[in-house]
Amino acid sequence: REGTIFIPARRVRVLRDEGIANTHSVGVWNLPRSGTSRRKSTPPSVLPAHRIVNQTKCCSGAKLVILRDATHVDLPGLSPLPAGLQDSSLGFRVGKTLKPVLSVPLPHVRRGGEQQHLRPDSTPPCDVAAAAAAAAA
Predict the structure, then answer these.
(1) C-alpha to C-alpha distance for 25 and 23, rounded to whole angstroms
(2) 3-state SS string over the chain?
(3) How confident is the model at residue 44 (pLDDT cuts 50, 70, 90)?
(4) Residue 51 pairs with which residues in a beta bridge?
(5) How far apart are CA 124 and CA 127, in angstroms?
(6) Predicted model pTM
(7) CA separation for the pair 79, 117 (Å, rounded)
């Protein structure tokens, strides 16, 4: 559970819909499923195979979704990363969840004709010590 993994940015999206969550199923990926799930708490998912990362209480910044396979299709509840990042890879630290090594710039989203910038969550107290230690190293 140490080290950094690199994922092509074209497979990473910013999570906008707080109703989307990881499932507790076999394997790493949340798979598309219909509304006929045996678990009443598991809503149907129209997303392709994906994993939500940077989502625990000790994470800072936006929750991100890693897609198993790259797609150019607009996906509900997700925003693509800025176009300038699409041909790069993002580094993630491995831990309880994957956390981006560098802050991910958030895309602009159009809502009702207005362009708004998505804002990341504030840094929670448990990350302050880790950030200070990393800066000192």
Answers:
(1) 6
(2) CCCEEEEEHHHEEEECCCCCCCCCCCCCCECCECCCCCCCCCCCECCCCEEEECCCCCCCCCCEEEECCCCCCCCCCEEECCHHHCCCEEEEECCCCCEECCCCCCCEEEECCEEEECCCCCCCHHHHHHHHHHHHC
(3) low
(4) 66
(5) 6
(6) 0.70
(7) 11
